[in-house]
């Protein structure tokens, strides 16, 4: 293939990017988006603060713009994210107990119903595990509603949109470590008890290297019976092109690694200001990391 999306498709995979609604009027941005990518994640527009700015009042305008643009270009969309401790609307941030639990359930039901049948997957729960060596849950207002909040979120999403793949998504889970093992144990438990979960996303915000057990980590999750995806890939540092290729090769070596998504198009689109972690420069030119990524996709 001669584009990221077409090359990934040759092995049945996709290649996606995060999209920001504010850039859909930028012809350079949209030109690259439509040429290179066949999967899209809304960078902010489907999050809780964006979709339910006041309780019970929903706004899908920007999420719908991203979805319609993607569908018009033959791409599918990953919903991101239904339940997360971050980017909650102000009205939810101070809530607790059954009021917050009920608000979360209603939010998931409403948003997943709005997009029912139109998304290939949802990040149902994002970043619920703690960093460091404990392997446990992150403290948050959602966690304090009870340890079952994650399975309630997944069951609620399944009921609202039975056709969407339901994913857990997190960062610093790229190698075998305490945090990824905590998530692994949760997924194994969900599978054993019939809690609906279809996929695990590995954000892969990397700095100049990738853990040596990256592929093994993807594989151990796949062996539990879930698909895995690279969901927010960006890589800073002088070894960038080699590390991108290594990440692609790891995904290609895992049958259930169904695709990769980079977290933005040009370096100037990245949340990592000044780190130049993406595949296109500020002018939209292909970088060495683009070429190494394309070659690794074509080698599969
Ligand atoms: O929209 C407002 C704008 O009106 C205001 O003028 C401006 C002033 O700061 O802020 C704008 O909102 C910003 C928003 O991005 C849209 O640009 C927020 O401040 C800013 O915090 C927000 O950052 C996003 C971040 O998530 C928030 O947690 C990034 O764009 C987005 O790339 C990032 O994405 C996350 C994933 O969802 C989850 N994994 C980590 C990843 C990187 O942090």
Automatic annotation (TrEMBL):
GO biological process: xylan catabolic process
Enzyme class name: hydrolase
Record's catalysed reaction(s): Endohydrolysis of (1->4)-beta-D-xylosidic linkages in xylans
UniProt keyword annotation of Hydrolase present: yes
GH10 domain residues: 1-296
One GO MF term attached to the UniProt entry: endo-1,4-beta-xylanase activity
Presence of keyword Hydrolase: yes
Top-level taxon in the UniProt lineage: Bacteria
Active site as annotated: 232 (nucleophile)
Catalytic activity, EC: 3.2.1.8
UniProt KW keywords: Carbohydrate metabolism, Glycosidase, Hydrolase, Polysaccharide degradation, Signal, Xylan degradation
Protein name: Beta-xylanase
Organism this protein belongs to: Virgisporangium aurantiacum
Gene behind the chain: xynA_5
Residues of the full protein shown: 34 to 333 of 442
């Amino acid at each position: 293939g001669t584009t990221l999306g077409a090359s990934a498709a040759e092995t049945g995979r996709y290649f996606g990017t995060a999209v920001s609604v504010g850039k859909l009027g930028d012809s350079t941005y949209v030109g690259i988006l439509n040429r290179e990518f066949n999967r899209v994640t809304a960078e902010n527009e489907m999050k809780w603060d964006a979709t339910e700015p006041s309780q019970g009042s929903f706004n899908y305008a920007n999420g719908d713009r991203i979805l319609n643009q993607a569908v018009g270009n033959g791409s599918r969309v990953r919903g991101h994210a239904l339940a997360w401790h971050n980017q909650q609307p102000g009205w939810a941030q101070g809530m607790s107990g059954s009021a917050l639990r009920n608000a979360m359930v209603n939010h998931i039901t409403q948003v997943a119903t709005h997009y029912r049948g139109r998304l290939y997957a949802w990040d149902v729960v994002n970043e619920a595990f703690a960093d460091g060596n404990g392997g446990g849950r992150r403290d948050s207002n959602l966690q304090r509603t009870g340890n079952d909040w994650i399975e309630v979120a997944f069951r609620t999403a399944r009921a609202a949109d039975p056709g969407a793949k339901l994913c857990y998504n997190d960062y610093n889970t790229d190698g075998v470590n305490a945090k990824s093992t905590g998530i692994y144990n949760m997924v194994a438990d969900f599978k054993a008890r019939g809690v609906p979960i279809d996929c695990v996303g590995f954000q892969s915000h990397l700095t100049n290297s990738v853990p040596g057990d990256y592929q093994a980590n993807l594989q151990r999750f796949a062996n539990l019976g879930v698909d895995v995806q690279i969901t927010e890939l960006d890589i800073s540092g002088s070894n960038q092109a080699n590390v991108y290729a290594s990440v692609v090769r790891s995904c290609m070596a895992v049958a259930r690694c169904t695709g990769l998504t980079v977290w933005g198009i040009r370096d100037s689109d990245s949340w990592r200001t000044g780190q130049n972690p993406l595949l296109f420069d500020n002018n939209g030119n292909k970088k060495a990391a683009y070429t190494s990524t394309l070659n690794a996709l074509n080698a599969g």
